[in-house]
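PROTEIN DATA CARD
Card holder: DUF4956 domain-containing protein
Chain length: 207
Origin: Micromonospora rubida
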Amino acid sequence: MPPVLFYAADLVAIGLLTFGVYLPRHRRRDLAVAYLGVNVGVLAVAASLATSTVGAGLGLGLFGVLSIIRLRSAELDQEEVAYYFSALALGLLGGLGAEVGTSAFVLMGLVIAVMYLAGHPRLLRRHRQQTMMLDSAFTDEPTLIRHLESLLGAEVRKVTVQRVDLVNDTTLVDVRFTVAKGQRAATGDHDRVADASVAGALRGARP
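Structure generated from the sequence above:
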């Protein structure tokens, strides 16, 4: 089968992944450009390697090197890392598709399907994670959990204390929680650092 068919399949696949799955959900133009650029770059290099005597081994090595460079260059959340690896995988499958055979098309479709389903907003949508800076120093875990549940209006599943500052009276925690059905969490849908002192002040001001 002509290699150009695999190149075209890769371009279609990365287009679907970027413009059909990633952008509608995350709206980050910079990462969309990065995914496209990485994919096409890997496609070009892998296609060149496929026609040489180097073989697919160096292509897999390239996959690892690019992964290390990209992951160390900027902070990405785990979902964005998954899209990045998917873009790399699609590029390799497209570039080395002539050696892999028609199964490359199936694998490309599998990558897109997994990313579409695993990142779907309706999948585990009640489960959240937040990193929060609390305006009190908590050394007792049950008390900390009750305070978090009061702030979030949700059931805390797991809490990890990252830092307790007794001098400044603050606690930095990573909390995993589940919001009630039909209820929205007080701190939003995505991972971010939240200043819980503001939320506490608002709650204290209520009549």
